[in-house]
Design brief:
The protein has 202 residues and is α+β, with helices and mostly antiparallel strands. The protein is built from seven helices and five strands; from the N terminus they run ααααβαββααββ. The two termini are 39 Å apart.
C-alpha cells in the first residue's frame, strides 16, 4: 500500500511538476522540452515498476490472481532483475488450497532470490506439477550448491528458515537437496488427502 499509494503518487506528482517546468522555461530554453520528456519517460517506467512490485508484494496476490498467474508474474519479475534464464512449467490441471498456494508462492520467491543472487547458476527451472496423489513445487538450479549443515550453523540470511516457516503454516513438506558443486533443488509437496508429507532435508 505504501509503494502504490505514496511512492507511486509522489513519482506521478514529480512528472506533473516537470510539465509546469517545461511551460515556464520552454521559450528561454527550447532544448529543455526534449530533455524533460526523457525524464518523464524514465519516471513513467519507475511508476509502472513500483505499481507492479506493490502488486506482487501484496499478501493477497495469489488469492486475487490465482497461483499460476501469480507465479508467472513472479518469474517475470525475477527474470527482469537477473541475467539467469528461468524456465517455468505449470500443470494447468493442478488444484491446491489457497493456504498451500500462498506458501508455495513465498517459498518459490525465496528460492529464486537465493538462486539468482548466490548460486552462480546459469539455468533455473520452476516446476509446479501434480501426480495422482501429490502436488509438488520444485525450484532447481545448476549453481555451485552448498553444505546444508554449514548453512544451518552459519546462515548467510533468513532464506532457509523462512522456507521452513512457510511450510509449517500449510500442510506441505519442504525438502532441500544440495551439495557443493551439485546445484540445488528445493522441493515442496502437498498430499491430495491433505496429509503432511515429512522428509528431512538432504
Amino acid at each position: 500500500r505504501l509503494l502504490h499509494d505514496e511512492v507511486g503518487q509522489v513519482l506521478s506528482a514529480v512528472g506533473l511538476q516537470l510539465d509546469v517546468l517545461k511551460l515556464d522555461f520552454r521559450e528561454q530554453l527550447p532544448e529543455i522540452t526534449e530533455r524533460i520528456k526523457e525524464i518523464q519517460n524514465m519516471l513513467e517506467q519507475a511508476v509502472q515498476q513500483v505499481r507492479a512490485l506493490s502488486y506482487d508484494l501484496n499478501p493477497a496476490v495469489v488469492e486475487r490472481a490465482g497461483l499460476q498467474r501469480a507465479m508467472d508474474r513472479l518469474v517475470g519479475r525475477i527474470r527482469a532483475q537477473s541475467t539467469v534464464p528461468i524456465r517455468f512449467l505449470y500443470d494447468p490441471a493442478l488444484r491446491v488450497p489457497l493456504q498451500v498456494a500462498n506458501a508455495w508462492y513465498k517459498i518459490a520467491e525465496l528460492a529464486l532470490d537465493n538462486a539468482t543472487k548466490h548460486s552462480g547458476a546459469t539455468k533455473i527451472e520452476v516446476h509446479i506439477k501434480s501426480t495422482q496423489k501429490l502436488a509438488a513445487l520444485e525450484v532447481r538450479d545448476n549453481g555451485k550448491g552448498f553444505s546444508i549443515l554449514e548453512a544451518k550453523l552459519n546462515p548467510a540470511g533468513l532464506g532457509l528458515l523462512l522456507m521452513e516457516h512457510h511450510s509449517r503454516q500449510a500442510p506441505i513438506s519442504i525438502d532441500l537437496k544440495t551439495a557443493p558443486g551439485k546445484g540445488t533443488i528445493v522441493r515442496s509437496t502437498y498430499s491430495a488427502e491433505g496429509e503432511r508429507q515429512s522428509s528431512p532435508a538432504s
